[in-house]
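Title: Prediction job returns without error message
Component: structure pipeline
Severity: low
Priority: P3
Assignee: unassigned

Description:
Job completed but the reporter wants confirmation the result is attached to the right record. Sequence as submitted:
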Amino acid sequence: MKDLIVFLAFTLCLCLATTTSDISTDDSNTDQKWVTIKGTPVGSYGGRTVSNIGDFNGDGIDDMLVNAANYLNGEVAYVIYGQKNGYSQDTITVSSTYSEGFAIYGPFVGSTFTNFGYGVSKAIDLNDDGLYDIVLGAHSYSNSRGMVYVIYGKKDHTGDITINQDYTFSSADGFVIFGPQDGSTFGYSISSARDFNGDGVDDLLIGAPGFGSPQGGAFVIYGKKEKFTDNIPLETTPADLTIYSPAGTNCKLGTVVDGVGDINGDGIDDILLGAPNCYKVYGLYGKKNRVETSLAVDSSLDTSKGFTISSLSSTGQYGAILSSAGDINGDGLQDIIIGSYVSSSSRGAYVFYGREEDWSSFEIDSGYASNQGFKIKDSRSAIASIGVAVSGGDINGDGIDDILVRARDRTVTSSVKGLIAVIYGSKAKFTSDFDIGTDLTDYKGFLISGLDLNSQQYTNTLAAGDLNGDNMNDIFIGCPEGDYYSGKAYIVFGFSKKEGDGVFEFMFNIDVCPDHCATCESSKCLTCFEGYGLSDDACIECSAGTYLSGEGVCEGNH
């Protein structure tokens, strides 16, 4: 068990004394397994959004963004630069000495919050200059009209960025997209659409679940091979593609959006849009030389343009959680994952494989298996809300993407209420449901569990990216309700897992010693719950051929 990765909690502390920021790093820590980042004042909800924003500063390594809703009566997002071979320290404190990275201060005025940074795009290069840009929403701006900021990537960028109180900033830094109407909540969800129109440049997808009547919509802005020179007011300057909610229904289309890559094998990237009030997920295919500037996702949606995956359940929050899963079976097509975390009948996460054909519409509760899909469930807990957040990435470096699924209300010990399951992708497709309680056996994945993982409906709290340049994705986890709503987040670096290593189950940040630690020395008890599974110092040492289970006892054989 000595090689078991230790997963330490970190409190995201945003106690800035000035507007200058600093992380001290170097290239020396090649064996680093985790990093701790310290945190925000009470009520800041630090970590309510975490995102892999790609390589913003041109050093060849992914960067990370972490949002805090309420920093000392303001709104702020922090960019932490990735560092080749890891950081020189295991704790990064975002403070007045934080320099390898920067802060983006939102346009907080008086008591007006804009929800700056709740919606954040994953990696996108909107002006095709080879640097990834940052895209953040402020969906509560101006009577919930909403707005979106695009900040251009800049090689060797230094210094914080402050959004002016007139909600603008220098055109050299980027541009602003203003929502189409009051109440539209434009920017509630944001994603790269990847290359949705097949011109070789990334496109931008923005959800507006309050747009129009009936409510719900989304907008696509096509990227171009130059900088945008002007702001875009959608009230007078239409988007390149406007996507409307079905007629007569307040579906809240655009509550979540994602560019999922090519899922039908035509060589052009596709998008997904969630409509939780109608219990539907819509898929739209990318298209070269698209002439249409508007599209309604309703019963008349042509199968050559897209498809609908619906649910019969009205209690599963179906349509509020979805993501690209990457390519989890290595066939060159992108796969998708959809969470449904409330209803007992449909609770779980549903994974669907890409296929070289247009998809037919279907009902998910009974039709997923016949549509090249499978369900991830959890027999160890009848009430666990599995699927509250989902993502994908190659965590173990085998060249095939892995599945990340978050659950809450899943009791592992008497005080552990949250969990993340990492399920390794495989060239052999899953042909039946995957039960993390019974099927997560040797070399199929691992679990991460902890008290602070029981955050409620924050769907932007799980992401993956390569922060240390080792060609394996690392896991980013936000826990905005930790530490009296100061907020916490967790990061674990990807690692290569070999056959025979056994089942990994990490536990962290348990506030009281579990029963099996009761007779340990306090220091060893602390190690037991902060570094679960460490045979060097833990109060339980498992013998060869067994592993330390989530209940803190030695079980089973490898």
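Comment from assignee: result matches the submitted record. The CA atoms of residues 264 and 432 lie 22 Å apart.
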